DNA sequence: TATTGTTATACTCTATAACTATA
DNA sequence: TATAGTTATAGAGTATAACAATA
Protein backbone atom coordinates (compact mmCIF):
# COMPACT_ATOMS: atom_id res chain seq x y z
CA UNK A 1 0.00 0.00 0.00
CA UNK A 2 0.93 3.69 -0.29
CA UNK A 3 3.98 3.16 -2.47
CA UNK A 4 7.00 5.38 -1.93
CA UNK A 5 7.13 8.15 -4.51
CA UNK A 6 10.05 10.12 -5.85
CA UNK A 7 10.06 13.43 -3.91
CA UNK A 8 10.58 15.38 -7.13
CA UNK A 9 7.49 13.70 -8.59
CA UNK A 10 5.48 14.49 -5.47
CA UNK A 11 6.51 18.15 -5.64
CA UNK A 12 5.41 18.42 -9.26
CA UNK A 13 2.14 16.62 -8.53
CA UNK A 14 1.34 18.87 -5.58
CA UNK A 15 2.28 21.94 -7.58
CA UNK A 16 0.09 20.92 -10.50
CA UNK A 17 -2.91 20.16 -8.29
CA UNK A 18 -2.60 23.37 -6.31
CA UNK A 19 -2.04 25.46 -9.44
CA UNK A 20 -5.01 23.84 -11.11
CA UNK A 21 -7.37 24.62 -8.25
CA UNK A 22 -6.09 28.20 -8.24
CA UNK A 23 -6.57 28.66 -11.98
CA UNK A 24 -9.98 27.00 -12.01
CA UNK A 25 -11.12 29.15 -9.09
CA UNK A 26 -10.02 32.20 -11.04
CA UNK A 27 -11.91 31.08 -14.15
CA UNK A 28 -14.98 30.36 -12.03
CA UNK A 29 -14.78 33.84 -10.58
CA UNK A 30 -14.71 35.42 -14.04
CA UNK A 31 -17.63 33.22 -15.09
CA UNK A 32 -19.65 33.97 -11.94
CA UNK A 33 -19.26 37.71 -12.50
CA UNK A 34 -21.29 37.24 -15.70
CA UNK A 35 -23.65 34.74 -14.08
CA UNK A 36 -22.11 31.92 -16.06
CA UNK A 37 -21.04 28.49 -14.88
CA UNK A 38 -17.52 27.27 -15.55
CA UNK A 39 -18.96 24.90 -18.15
CA UNK A 40 -20.70 27.76 -19.93
CA UNK A 41 -17.44 29.71 -19.98
CA UNK A 42 -15.66 26.70 -21.46
CA UNK A 43 -18.41 26.32 -24.03
CA UNK A 44 -18.08 29.91 -25.18
CA UNK A 45 -14.30 29.46 -25.47
CA UNK A 46 -14.74 26.27 -27.50
CA UNK A 47 -17.25 27.90 -29.83
CA UNK A 48 -14.95 30.81 -30.62
CA UNK A 49 -13.35 28.83 -33.42
CA UNK A 50 -15.73 25.91 -34.04
CA UNK A 51 -19.37 25.13 -34.87
CA UNK A 52 -19.60 21.63 -33.44
CA UNK A 53 -22.55 19.25 -33.44
CA UNK A 54 -24.12 18.63 -30.05
CA UNK A 55 -22.37 15.28 -29.81
CA UNK A 56 -19.00 16.82 -30.67
CA UNK A 57 -19.50 19.52 -28.06
CA UNK A 58 -20.39 16.83 -25.54
CA UNK A 59 -17.12 15.05 -26.35
CA UNK A 60 -15.13 18.28 -25.93
CA UNK A 61 -16.72 18.93 -22.56
CA UNK A 62 -16.75 15.33 -21.36
CA UNK A 63 -20.51 15.41 -20.78
CA UNK A 64 -23.51 13.40 -21.94
CA UNK A 65 -25.45 14.65 -24.96
CA UNK A 66 -28.53 15.21 -22.83
CA UNK A 67 -26.58 17.45 -20.48
CA UNK A 68 -25.27 19.49 -23.39
CA UNK A 69 -28.76 19.77 -24.80
CA UNK A 70 -29.85 21.53 -21.60
CA UNK A 71 -26.66 23.59 -21.50
CA UNK A 72 -27.33 24.84 -25.03
CA UNK A 73 -30.98 25.52 -24.13
CA UNK A 74 -29.89 27.88 -21.36
CA UNK A 75 -27.28 29.58 -23.55
CA UNK A 76 -29.84 30.06 -26.34
CA UNK A 77 -32.28 31.56 -23.85
CA UNK A 78 -29.58 34.12 -22.98
CA UNK A 79 -28.88 34.94 -26.59
CA UNK A 80 -25.30 33.60 -26.49
CA UNK A 81 -25.55 30.75 -29.00
CA UNK A 82 -27.92 29.41 -31.62
CA UNK A 83 -28.76 26.03 -33.10
CA UNK A 84 -28.90 25.35 -36.81
CA UNK A 85 -29.22 22.39 -39.15
CA UNK A 86 -26.08 20.54 -40.13
CA UNK A 87 -26.49 20.37 -43.92
CA UNK A 88 -25.26 16.85 -44.49
CA UNK A 89 -27.02 14.98 -41.67
CA UNK A 90 -30.69 15.75 -41.05
CA UNK A 91 -30.47 14.50 -37.48
CA UNK A 92 -27.55 16.66 -36.43
CA UNK A 93 -27.64 20.15 -34.93
CA UNK A 94 -24.75 22.59 -35.04
CA UNK A 95 -24.14 25.17 -32.32
CA UNK A 96 -22.54 28.54 -32.94
CA UNK A 97 -22.00 31.83 -31.13
CA UNK A 98 -24.26 34.79 -31.77
CA UNK A 99 -22.55 38.19 -32.19
CA UNK A 100 -23.37 38.83 -28.54
CA UNK A 101 -21.81 35.49 -27.61
CA UNK A 102 -18.68 36.38 -29.57
CA UNK A 103 -18.33 39.69 -27.79
CA UNK A 104 -18.84 38.07 -24.39
CA UNK A 105 -16.30 35.35 -25.16
CA UNK A 106 -13.69 37.93 -26.13
CA UNK A 107 -14.39 39.94 -23.01
CA UNK A 108 -14.09 36.85 -20.81
CA UNK A 109 -10.68 36.06 -22.30
CA UNK A 110 -9.53 39.58 -21.45
CA UNK A 111 -10.80 39.29 -17.90
CA UNK A 112 -9.04 35.97 -17.42
CA UNK A 113 -5.81 37.48 -18.72
CA UNK A 114 -6.14 40.38 -16.31
CA UNK A 115 -6.60 38.02 -13.38
CA UNK A 116 -3.81 35.65 -14.36
CA UNK A 117 -1.36 38.45 -15.09
CA UNK A 118 -0.31 39.14 -11.48
CA UNK A 119 0.37 35.44 -10.98
CA UNK A 120 2.42 35.00 -14.15
CA UNK A 121 4.08 38.34 -13.54
CA UNK A 122 5.85 36.83 -10.54
CA UNK A 123 8.07 35.07 -13.07
CA UNK A 124 10.64 36.90 -15.14
CA UNK A 125 10.54 36.60 -18.92
CA UNK A 126 13.07 33.78 -18.94
CA UNK A 127 11.08 31.77 -16.41
CA UNK A 128 7.88 32.44 -18.35
CA UNK A 129 9.47 31.04 -21.49
CA UNK A 130 10.68 27.97 -19.60
CA UNK A 131 7.29 27.38 -17.98
CA UNK A 132 5.48 27.73 -21.30
CA UNK A 133 7.80 25.18 -22.87
CA UNK A 134 7.43 22.73 -19.98
CA UNK A 135 3.62 22.95 -20.07
CA UNK A 136 3.65 22.28 -23.81
CA UNK A 137 5.70 19.13 -23.17
CA UNK A 138 3.33 18.12 -20.38
CA UNK A 139 0.27 18.49 -22.60
CA UNK A 140 1.81 16.85 -25.67
CA UNK B 1 -10.67 46.67 -26.40
CA UNK B 2 -8.76 43.38 -26.58
CA UNK B 3 -5.36 44.74 -25.59
CA UNK B 4 -2.29 43.27 -27.24
CA UNK B 5 -0.62 40.73 -24.99
CA UNK B 6 2.95 39.52 -24.89
CA UNK B 7 3.01 36.24 -26.84
CA UNK B 8 5.08 34.59 -24.10
CA UNK B 9 2.43 35.58 -21.57
CA UNK B 10 -0.33 34.21 -23.80
CA UNK B 11 1.50 30.91 -24.15
CA UNK B 12 1.86 30.54 -20.39
CA UNK B 13 -1.77 31.50 -19.81
CA UNK B 14 -3.04 29.00 -22.39
CA UNK B 15 -0.76 26.32 -20.99
CA UNK B 16 -1.94 26.94 -17.44
CA UNK B 17 -5.62 26.90 -18.39
CA UNK B 18 -5.32 23.75 -20.49
CA UNK B 19 -3.21 22.00 -17.87
CA UNK B 20 -5.68 22.95 -15.16
CA UNK B 21 -8.66 21.52 -17.02
CA UNK B 22 -6.69 18.35 -17.64
CA UNK B 23 -5.66 17.95 -14.01
CA UNK B 24 -9.12 18.78 -12.68
CA UNK B 25 -10.71 16.29 -15.09
CA UNK B 26 -8.33 13.68 -13.79
CA UNK B 27 -9.16 14.46 -10.17
CA UNK B 28 -12.87 14.36 -11.01
CA UNK B 29 -12.41 10.96 -12.57
CA UNK B 30 -10.74 9.58 -9.46
CA UNK B 31 -13.51 11.09 -7.32
CA UNK B 32 -16.29 9.76 -9.56
CA UNK B 33 -14.88 6.24 -9.34
CA UNK B 34 -15.67 6.36 -5.62
CA UNK B 35 -18.97 8.18 -6.17
CA UNK B 36 -17.51 11.36 -4.75
CA UNK B 37 -17.75 14.88 -6.09
CA UNK B 38 -14.61 16.91 -6.70
CA UNK B 39 -15.55 18.99 -3.66
CA UNK B 40 -15.81 15.89 -1.49
CA UNK B 41 -12.38 14.77 -2.68
CA UNK B 42 -10.95 18.19 -1.83
CA UNK B 43 -12.61 18.02 1.56
CA UNK B 44 -11.05 14.67 2.38
CA UNK B 45 -7.65 16.01 1.31
CA UNK B 46 -8.06 19.11 3.50
CA UNK B 47 -9.13 17.05 6.51
CA UNK B 48 -6.07 14.81 6.30
CA UNK B 49 -4.10 17.26 8.42
CA UNK B 50 -6.70 19.56 9.97
CA UNK B 51 -9.89 19.50 12.07
CA UNK B 52 -11.46 22.78 10.98
CA UNK B 53 -14.68 24.37 12.11
CA UNK B 54 -17.47 24.44 9.53
CA UNK B 55 -16.78 28.10 8.80
CA UNK B 56 -13.04 27.44 8.35
CA UNK B 57 -13.77 24.57 6.00
CA UNK B 58 -16.11 26.86 4.06
CA UNK B 59 -13.29 29.40 3.71
CA UNK B 60 -10.87 26.71 2.49
CA UNK B 61 -13.35 25.53 -0.12
CA UNK B 62 -14.66 28.95 -1.09
CA UNK B 63 -18.25 27.95 -0.28
CA UNK B 64 -21.04 29.25 1.95
CA UNK B 65 -21.43 27.71 5.40
CA UNK B 66 -24.82 26.31 4.48
CA UNK B 67 -23.32 24.50 1.49
CA UNK B 68 -20.64 23.00 3.68
CA UNK B 69 -23.23 21.96 6.23
CA UNK B 70 -24.93 19.83 3.57
CA UNK B 71 -21.59 18.60 2.26
CA UNK B 72 -20.65 17.40 5.74
CA UNK B 73 -24.11 15.84 6.16
CA UNK B 74 -23.56 13.66 3.11
CA UNK B 75 -20.03 12.74 4.17
CA UNK B 76 -21.23 11.81 7.66
CA UNK B 77 -23.96 9.66 6.15
CA UNK B 78 -21.24 7.77 4.27
CA UNK B 79 -19.12 7.32 7.37
CA UNK B 80 -16.24 9.45 6.06
CA UNK B 81 -16.24 12.29 8.60
CA UNK B 82 -17.76 13.17 11.95
CA UNK B 83 -18.80 16.32 13.75
CA UNK B 84 -17.77 17.13 17.30
CA UNK B 85 -17.96 20.04 19.70
CA UNK B 86 -15.22 22.63 19.56
CA UNK B 87 -14.34 22.88 23.26
CA UNK B 88 -13.88 26.62 23.53
CA UNK B 89 -16.93 27.85 21.59
CA UNK B 90 -20.25 26.19 22.26
CA UNK B 91 -21.64 27.25 18.90
CA UNK B 92 -18.81 25.84 16.81
CA UNK B 93 -18.55 22.37 15.30
CA UNK B 94 -15.32 20.70 14.26
CA UNK B 95 -15.11 18.21 11.42
CA UNK B 96 -12.65 15.35 11.29
CA UNK B 97 -12.03 12.21 9.26
CA UNK B 98 -13.14 8.81 10.54
CA UNK B 99 -10.66 5.94 10.18
CA UNK B 100 -12.56 4.93 7.05
CA UNK B 101 -12.27 8.50 5.76
CA UNK B 102 -8.53 8.45 6.42
CA UNK B 103 -8.09 5.22 4.50
CA UNK B 104 -10.14 6.52 1.59
CA UNK B 105 -8.20 9.81 1.50
CA UNK B 106 -4.89 7.93 1.36
CA UNK B 107 -6.20 5.68 -1.38
CA UNK B 108 -7.43 8.65 -3.41
CA UNK B 109 -3.99 10.26 -3.21
CA UNK B 110 -2.45 7.07 -4.57
CA UNK B 111 -4.94 6.90 -7.40
CA UNK B 112 -4.28 10.50 -8.35
CA UNK B 113 -0.54 9.84 -8.36
CA UNK B 114 -1.05 6.82 -10.62
CA UNK B 115 -3.07 8.89 -13.08
CA UNK B 116 -0.71 11.88 -13.07
CA UNK B 117 2.40 9.75 -13.39
CA UNK B 118 2.20 9.19 -17.17
CA UNK B 119 1.81 12.92 -17.70
CA UNK B 120 4.70 13.94 -15.48
CA UNK B 121 6.73 11.04 -16.80
CA UNK B 122 6.91 12.80 -20.15
CA UNK B 123 9.43 15.12 -18.51
CA UNK B 124 12.92 14.02 -17.58
CA UNK B 125 14.12 14.44 -14.00
CA UNK B 126 15.77 17.78 -14.77
CA UNK B 127 12.61 19.17 -16.32
CA UNK B 128 10.55 17.87 -13.40
CA UNK B 129 12.81 19.72 -10.97
CA UNK B 130 12.53 22.90 -13.03
CA UNK B 131 8.74 22.64 -13.32
CA UNK B 132 8.38 22.02 -9.59
CA UNK B 133 10.45 25.10 -8.83
CA UNK B 134 8.51 27.27 -11.30
CA UNK B 135 5.16 26.19 -9.86
CA UNK B 136 6.37 27.01 -6.36
CA UNK B 137 7.28 30.52 -7.55
CA UNK B 138 3.91 30.84 -9.25
CA UNK B 139 2.01 29.87 -6.11
CA UNK B 140 4.12 31.96 -3.73
C1' DT C 1 -31.16 -1.38 -36.79
C1' DA C 2 -28.15 2.40 -35.32
C1' DT C 3 -27.43 7.21 -34.40
C1' DT C 4 -28.64 12.22 -33.12
C1' DG C 5 -30.82 14.91 -30.34
C1' DT C 6 -34.55 15.86 -26.97
C1' DT C 7 -37.45 15.04 -23.02
C1' DA C 8 -38.68 13.17 -18.42
C1' DT C 9 -36.97 12.27 -14.11
C1' DA C 10 -34.03 12.23 -10.14
C1' DC C 11 -30.13 13.60 -7.42
C1' DT C 12 -26.09 16.51 -6.13
C1' DC C 13 -24.36 20.92 -5.43
C1' DT C 14 -24.77 25.57 -4.46
C1' DA C 15 -26.72 30.04 -2.82
C1' DT C 16 -30.00 33.08 -0.17
C1' DA C 17 -32.86 33.81 3.56
C1' DA C 18 -34.83 32.65 7.88
C1' DC C 19 -34.07 30.38 12.08
C1' DT C 20 -31.62 28.50 16.74
C1' DA C 21 -28.29 28.61 20.06
C1' DT C 22 -24.64 30.45 21.85
C1' DA C 23 -21.52 34.55 22.64
C1' DT D 1 -26.35 42.45 18.98
C1' DA D 2 -23.30 39.43 16.50
C1' DT D 3 -21.66 34.90 15.24
C1' DA D 4 -21.85 29.61 14.18
C1' DG D 5 -24.36 26.43 12.31
C1' DT D 6 -28.69 24.45 10.44
C1' DT D 7 -32.84 24.23 7.73
C1' DA D 8 -36.01 25.48 3.94
C1' DT D 9 -36.21 26.55 -0.58
C1' DA D 10 -35.00 27.24 -5.31
C1' DG D 11 -32.17 26.79 -9.40
C1' DA D 12 -28.22 25.00 -12.20
C1' DG D 13 -25.93 21.03 -13.72
C1' DT D 14 -25.49 16.32 -14.47
C1' DA D 15 -26.78 11.37 -15.54
C1' DT D 16 -29.90 7.53 -17.03
C1' DA D 17 -33.63 5.95 -19.59
C1' DA D 18 -37.16 6.38 -22.96
C1' DC D 19 -38.42 8.54 -27.10
C1' DA D 20 -38.72 10.79 -32.06
C1' DA D 21 -36.62 11.59 -36.33
C1' DT D 22 -33.29 10.41 -39.57
C1' DA D 23 -29.73 7.40 -41.40
Description:
2 copies of one chain form a homodimer. Chain A is mainly alpha-helical and 140 residues long. Chain A is 68% helix and 11% strand. A two-stranded antiparallel sheet of chain A has the order 1-2. In chain A, a hairpin with a 2-residue loop joins strand 1 and strand 2. The radius of gyration of chain A is 19 Å and the shape is globular. The two termini of chain A are 31 Å apart. The model of chain A has no long low-confidence stretch (mean pLDDT 95). Chains A and B meet through helix 1, helix 5 and helix 6 of A and helix 1, helix 5 and helix 6 of B. Chain A binds a DNA duplex (23 and 23 nucleotides) through helix 4 and strand 2.
Short description:
2 copies of one chain form a homodimer. With 140 residues, the first copy, chain A, is mainly alpha-helical.
Name its key features:
homodimer, 140 residues, mainly alpha, 6 helices, 2 strands, 68% helix, DNA-binding
Q: What's the total helix number of chain A?
A: 6
Rg for CA atoms of chain A:
19 Å
Assembly annotation: homodimer
Low-confidence segments of chain A = none
Q: What's the main sheet of chain A like?
A: 2 strands, antiparallel
Biggest sheet: strand arrangement of chain A: 1-2
Query: Pair with the most extensive interface?
Result: A-B, 49 and 49 residues
Distance between the termini of chain A: 31 Å
Identify the overall geometry of chain A: globular
Total strand segments of chain A: 2
The succession of helices and strands of chain A, N to C, reads HHHHEEHH
Q: How much β-strand is present in the residues of chain A?
A: 5-15%
Query: How confident overall, as mean pLDDT of chain A?
Result: 95
Name the helicity range of chain A.
55-70%
Structural class of chain A: mainly alpha
